[in-house]
Hints:
Helices cover about 20% and strands about 25% of the residues. It is an alpha/beta fold. The protein has one domain (about 5-265): Purple Acid Phosphatase, chain A, domain 2, CATH 3.60.21.10. Fe (ii) ion (FE2) binds next to loops.
Amino acid sequence: xxxxxxxxxxxxxxxxxxxxxLYGQVDGIGRLYRVAQYVAEAGLTPEAIVITGDLAQSGHxxxxxxxxxxxxxxxxxxxxxxxxxxxxxxEPAQARVLDGHAIQHYRVIELDRLRIVTLDTSTGSIxxxxxxxxxxxxxxxxxxxxxLAMHHAPxxxxxxxxxxxxxxxxxxxxxxxKNSDVRLIxxxxxxxxxxxxxxxxxVWVGPSLAYEQIMNAGPHEVAGQDSAMFSIIQLTETGFxxxxxxxxxxxxxxxxxxxxxxxxxxxxxxx
Length: 271
Ligand SMILES: [Fe+2]
């Protein structure tokens, strides 16, 4: 069945751990379940769930079986297929237990109107054979176009400490996708939200579910603060939107029935 828009639930940088909390307080897999609950409560019905890498924290290879189970349950809860890519923290051999990762860590998925292509940048770059494969996939356009999902952003972060930590061969990727039907790139890695453009194609660097970069930590340090965020991506035939959402929330400042606000003739002053 076709719909007017496709919604993608975009999650990145879970940094799941095995047996201990990340930095003593972050439970990545627990947060994943909370995202599913949050999205369901929001009344959103995504067509797909895309997770762009750093699924597990480096050295926590035993987290992958737990991730596999969590991915299956979140997919079932939201009634949408889930696709994941690997990041630099991930361990490719142990990640093979994940659904869709048994043979290789990149693939193409055809939704109703959209094509999603997941890429493996666990080495920091896209290997040349994978770029060849990508060119072959993109040689045939699909529906409303293609969304690329990858861990490393193919654009530099404005933070000096992260500016050289993006995709190692972004120029090669740009050449491979230029004039193709790729219309959006979803990435993560930086742990700070950012939008950009490469080869005329928009890039959405989604926030992390585990922690957020402290942007004024200085040029020679990186520091993180507790934050759990994800993105809601919506695509129509000709456009898209990307909305970052915070999972951690304090007591609401106000709650007003939307009908009442409309009758009053205006929304609260914060809108
Ligand atoms: Fe990360």
